[in-house]
Amino acid sequence: MNQAKRTYLNLMIFKIIAECKGRISVQQIHQQIEPNMGMSVRSLQRYMKGLAEWGLIQADGKTPQGFKLSEHAKSIFKELAGSAAH
């Protein structure tokens, strides 16, 4: 995956999670991004695990695994939104 595609994927994942009230599963995310990305559910699971390891999303440990934005990610986006407003 090239850098532009990875950046787009990150933005799509963050947008989808941010728009969801509560938790969202990999399958739900996959249904929304697959037409644009051509990524398997398993590949997305591995990718989401990496985002969680970076502290950008939080996994809830339930079955199926659910995710939400981490406080760290929320603060980054808030800071970016504030910078863009100036």
Concise overview:
This protein has 86 residues and is mainly alpha-helical. It has helices spanning 3-19, 26-37, 41-53, 71-85; strands at residues 24-25, 57-59, 66-69.
Topology:
Elements: H1 3-19, E1 24-25, H2 26-37, H3 41-53, E2 57-59, E3 66-69, H4 71-85
Antiparallel strand pairs: 1-3, 2-3
Helix pairs in contact: 1-2
Overall, the morphology is globular
Average residue-wise pLDDT = 89
Number of helices: 4
Q: What is the highest CATH level, the class? A: Mainly Alpha
SS strand fraction: 5-15%
Organism: Acinetobacter pragensis
InterPro entries: WH-like_DNA-bd_sf (IPR036388), WH_DNA-bd_sf (IPR036390)
Protein name: Transcriptional regulator
Characteristics of this structure?
three-stranded antiparallel β-sheet; 86 residues; globular; Arc Repressor Mutant, subunit A; mainly alpha
Structure characterization notes:
The structure is a single chain. This protein has 86 residues and is mostly helical. The chain has one domain: Orthogonal Bundle (Arc Repressor Mutant, subunit A). The protein is 66% helix and 10% strand. It is built from 4 helices and 3 strands, in the order αβααββα. The chain has helices spanning 3-19, 26-37, 41-53, 71-85, and strands at 24-25, 57-59, 66-69. A 3-stranded antiparallel beta sheet has the order 1-3-2. A hairpin with a 6-residue loop joins strand 2 (57-59) and strand 3. It is globular, with a radius of gyration of 13 Å. The N and C termini lie far apart (33 Å). The mean pLDDT is 89. This is Transcriptional regulator.
